[in-house]
Design goal:
The protein has about 60 residues and is mainly alpha-helical. Helix content is about 40%, strand content about 5%. The chain has a two-stranded antiparallel ribbon with strand order 1-2. It starts with 13 loop residues before the first helix and ends with a helix. Bound molecules: zinc ion (ZN). The site of zinc ion has 8 residues, from helix 2.
Length: about 60
Amino acid sequence: MVTRCEICGRVIPKARLDILPTTKRCVECAKKNGTDIQGKRTEVGMDIETYKDLLGATRS
Ligand SMILES: [Zn+2]
């Protein structure tokens, strides 16, 4: 059984599901649209503070 991204429909890699078992979004869509996991400290390879900085940088 595979989990597909709720936005783009691509299969979510098992490595991501190992870290975020309940995610419904692939890495790319989580970056573009925000993670669906609220309050989670880490995304794959990126902690939430770095992620917020990145969003702030791209908006300004
Ligand atoms: Zn996606």
